[in-house]
Design brief:
This protein is α+β, with helices and mostly antiparallel strands and 97 residues long. The chain contains 3 helices and 3 strands; from the N terminus they run βααββα. 40% of the residues lie in helices and 12% in strands. The termini are close together.
Protein backbone atom coordinates (compact mmCIF):
# COMPACT_ATOMS: atom_id res chain seq x y z
CA UNK A 1 0.00 0.00 0.00
CA UNK A 2 2.80 2.43 0.78
CA UNK A 3 3.99 2.14 -2.83
CA UNK A 4 0.61 2.87 -4.32
CA UNK A 5 0.05 5.85 -6.59
CA UNK A 6 -2.58 8.01 -4.84
CA UNK A 7 -4.05 9.15 -8.17
CA UNK A 8 -4.35 5.77 -9.91
CA UNK A 9 -4.52 3.22 -7.09
CA UNK A 10 -1.70 1.27 -8.67
CA UNK A 11 1.58 -0.05 -7.28
CA UNK A 12 4.66 -0.16 -9.48
CA UNK A 13 6.92 -2.90 -8.12
CA UNK A 14 8.51 -6.00 -9.60
CA UNK A 15 8.06 -9.40 -8.03
CA UNK A 16 11.78 -9.42 -7.22
CA UNK A 17 11.34 -6.12 -5.35
CA UNK A 18 8.28 -7.55 -3.56
CA UNK A 19 10.34 -10.56 -2.49
CA UNK A 20 13.10 -8.31 -1.12
CA UNK A 21 10.63 -6.03 0.68
CA UNK A 22 8.83 -8.96 2.29
CA UNK A 23 11.92 -11.05 2.98
CA UNK A 24 10.30 -13.87 1.03
CA UNK A 25 11.20 -16.02 -1.96
CA UNK A 26 9.88 -15.17 -5.42
CA UNK A 27 7.72 -18.35 -5.50
CA UNK A 28 6.15 -17.26 -2.19
CA UNK A 29 5.43 -13.82 -3.64
CA UNK A 30 3.93 -15.45 -6.74
CA UNK A 31 1.62 -17.61 -4.59
CA UNK A 32 0.67 -14.65 -2.42
CA UNK A 33 -0.14 -12.47 -5.39
CA UNK A 34 -2.16 -15.29 -6.93
CA UNK A 35 -4.27 -15.35 -3.76
CA UNK A 36 -4.75 -11.57 -3.85
CA UNK A 37 -5.87 -11.84 -7.48
CA UNK A 38 -8.23 -14.75 -6.70
CA UNK A 39 -9.78 -12.73 -3.87
CA UNK A 40 -10.13 -9.72 -6.17
CA UNK A 41 -7.92 -7.43 -4.05
CA UNK A 42 -5.21 -6.77 -6.66
CA UNK A 43 -4.47 -7.68 -10.25
CA UNK A 44 -1.73 -7.12 -12.78
CA UNK A 45 -2.14 -4.40 -15.39
CA UNK A 46 1.27 -5.08 -16.94
CA UNK A 47 4.66 -6.37 -15.78
CA UNK A 48 5.50 -4.59 -12.55
CA UNK A 49 2.26 -2.58 -12.36
CA UNK A 50 -0.58 -3.76 -10.17
CA UNK A 51 -4.04 -2.34 -9.65
CA UNK A 52 -5.28 -2.39 -6.07
CA UNK A 53 -9.01 -2.80 -5.49
CA UNK A 54 -10.75 0.61 -5.33
CA UNK A 55 -12.01 -0.16 -1.82
CA UNK A 56 -8.33 -0.09 -0.78
CA UNK A 57 -7.50 3.07 -2.74
CA UNK A 58 -10.40 5.39 -1.99
CA UNK A 59 -11.99 4.60 -5.35
CA UNK A 60 -8.90 5.38 -7.44
CA UNK A 61 -8.21 3.26 -10.54
CA UNK A 62 -5.75 3.68 -13.41
CA UNK A 63 -8.54 3.82 -16.01
CA UNK A 64 -12.19 2.74 -16.24
CA UNK A 65 -12.33 -1.04 -15.97
CA UNK A 66 -14.54 -3.81 -14.64
CA UNK A 67 -13.87 -4.09 -10.90
CA UNK A 68 -13.88 -7.63 -9.50
CA UNK A 69 -15.99 -8.61 -6.56
CA UNK A 70 -13.96 -9.22 -3.41
CA UNK A 71 -14.17 -12.88 -2.44
CA UNK A 72 -13.14 -14.27 0.93
CA UNK A 73 -10.29 -16.75 1.06
CA UNK A 74 -11.04 -20.19 2.44
CA UNK A 75 -10.29 -20.06 6.20
CA UNK A 76 -8.80 -23.57 6.25
CA UNK A 77 -5.99 -22.28 4.00
CA UNK A 78 -4.67 -20.16 6.89
CA UNK A 79 -2.66 -22.72 8.82
CA UNK A 80 -0.61 -21.81 11.88
CA UNK A 81 2.52 -21.95 9.72
CA UNK A 82 1.03 -19.43 7.30
CA UNK A 83 -0.07 -17.19 10.15
CA UNK A 84 3.47 -17.28 11.59
CA UNK A 85 5.00 -16.45 8.19
CA UNK A 86 2.57 -13.57 7.76
CA UNK A 87 3.48 -12.18 11.18
CA UNK A 88 7.20 -12.45 10.35
CA UNK A 89 6.70 -10.70 7.00
CA UNK A 90 4.68 -7.90 8.61
CA UNK A 91 7.41 -7.47 11.24
CA UNK A 92 9.99 -7.28 8.43
CA UNK A 93 7.97 -4.58 6.67
CA UNK A 94 7.64 -2.58 9.91
CA UNK A 95 11.39 -2.82 10.50
CA UNK A 96 12.27 -1.60 6.99
CA UNK A 97 9.44 0.96 6.65
Amino acid sequence: MYLSDPEAGTAAISQNEMARELGASKPTVNRGFKELRECGLAWSLEDGLYQLHPLLTGGKVAYPMPIPEIRAAEPERFTEQRRARFAAQMANLAATG
